[in-house]
Write a structure and sequence with these properties.
Number of strands: 10
Strand content: 5-15%
Shape: elongated
Structural class: alpha+beta
Largest sheet: 6 strands, antiparallel
Order of helices and strands: EEEEHHHHHHHEHEHEEHHHHEE
Low-confidence stretches: 1-31, 392-402, 404-409
Number of domains: 3
Number of helices: 13
Mean pLDDT: 76
């Protein structure tokens, strides 16, 4: 499976990691999910808290509002599992090569960044998985942090069966735990998006935001809890560059705005923050007619196909859908029908040797011109059909000509 991300819209910056000295991984600091999120210029932007080291890999993230949720809901399970398996392989290889903990982390970090440009929530899973692998020797603290991360906090993870010193089995177990959690969280999100987007006859007439409220009344907790709001610059001042002079210089260059941010303490906090603001901004949420996954409608309101880059490098649904719409529109077009009949007839003759490839090419070029004239109204349908039946094209060798039945004269 290729990891081609196409023209990805998210931006991730790797922390220069002067905090590699903090890499001893005081687990009281990592996995704290201490993030700050805010909306600016139609984008969700997230800063990972530096002082508490809530992320060992990522510094900041930005994507058009709503895209992260939609892309996370559409992420294939096999790609998620494959990525974690790949990280596990790199981890075991580094361990077997007796690499230092820092070398192990760097190898995992580089691989995680290769796969990170898909969804913010996928990135958080990658970050948590890398942290768990590196922190396996700290079994008690690592397990507590893992349980706090899971969708069903405190759920039985089967940890009693794990020998933490056996990195091969412990890392394989971790792949299963993270994948199972991803499936549960994604399934719940898809169910909620299905309800919010209006595919439920019992709540006809309710707006998407009203439907979100109904979900909260049913226990989904999208509108419960509190967010702590802070006023903060939208620029990250890295350690060593956050002194007064550097801050002043950056401000004078108009590179910084003071924005209202909310503190994020869990992945679910971030999900409900983005979903609420997506609905508040009245961004249409729709299912793609081709792949069946949710996407945010931008541009034309009648858009039916997503333009999400395919992980296998194939064409996005928007291109496939446009082609399908074109042919669907031609299904009952007599000009198109007559052209296709003649095209298939002559293509068949070319295949069995009654028409050369050059003759078929010349005929098809002329036939397309005639079709264009007919569609433009300069050639009647009857004249077009008559030409298809008795039209002639000069052969490329000799002076003989070929009628439309594939016979030379």
């Amino acid at each position: 499976m290729t990891r081609s991300q196409g023209k990805c819209i998210i931006k991730i910056r790797l922390i220069a990691k002067s905090r590699m000295a903090d890499y001893r991984l005081s687990l009281k600091k990592v996995w704290g999910m201490k993030q700050q999120a805010y909306i600016k210029d139609g984008k969700l932007r997230v800063h990972f808290n530096q002082s508490d080291a809530s992320s060992l890999i990522f510094d900041s993230f930005g994507a058009p509002l709503g895209n992260s949720i939609a892309d996370f809901s559409a992420l294939p399970e096999d790609f998620f599992r494959w990525t974690l398996e790949r990280l596990r392989d790199i981890y075991l290889e580094a361990i077997n090569n007796r690499g230092t903990r820092e070398a192990v982390f760097v190898a995992l970090k580089n691989e995680a960044l290769e796969s990170a440009q898909i969804s913010l929530f996928f990135n958080i899973y990658l970050d948590a998985f890398v942290m768990f692998l590196v922190c396996l020797p700290h079994k008690k603290e690592a397990m507590q942090k893992l349980r706090d991360f899971l969708l069903e906090q405190g759920q039985n993870t089967g940890k009693e069966r794990i020998q933490y010193a056996d990195f091969t089995n412990a890392s394989a177990w971790a792949v299963e735990v993270f994948t199972e959690d991803f499936i549960k969280r994604q399934t719940q999100l898809k169910e909620d998006l299905e309800f919010i987007s209006g595919n439920n006859d019992d709540y006809t007439g309710l707006t998407p935001m009203q439907r979100l409220y109904m979900l909260s009344k049913q226990g989904r907790n999208y509108l419960s809890g509190e967010f702590k709001t802070v006023l903060s610059p939208d620029h990250i001042f890295l350690p060593g560059k956050d002194d007064a002079e550097n801050v002043k210089s950056t401000l004078l260059q108009n590179k910084v705005d003071i924005v209202e941010m909310v503190e994020i303490n869990s992945l679910d906090d971030l999900l409900r923050f983005e979903l609420f603001h997506t609905l508040k901004a009245e961004l249409p949420l729709r299912k793609c007619k081709h792949c069946g996954e949710f996407f945010i409608v931008r541009g034309r309101v009648d858009t039916e196909y997503c333009d999400r880059p395919k992980l296998d490098g194939s064409k996005p649904c928007s291109i496939i859908g446009a082609t399908r719409n074109y042919w669907d529109s031609k299904a009952d077009d007599p000009v198109h029908i007559e052209f296709q009949k003649a095209y298939k007839r002559n293509h068949s003759r070319q295949r069995v040797g009654k028409m050369t490839q050059t003759e078929f090419y010349e005929w098809s070029e002329e036939a397309r011109k005639k079709r264009g004239e007919c569609e433009a109204g300069t050639l009647s349908l009857e004249e077009f059909v008559e030409w298809l039946e008795r039209g002639r094209v000069r052969r490329s060798r000799g002076n003989s000509v070929l009628d439309n039945h594939g016979h030379s004269q």
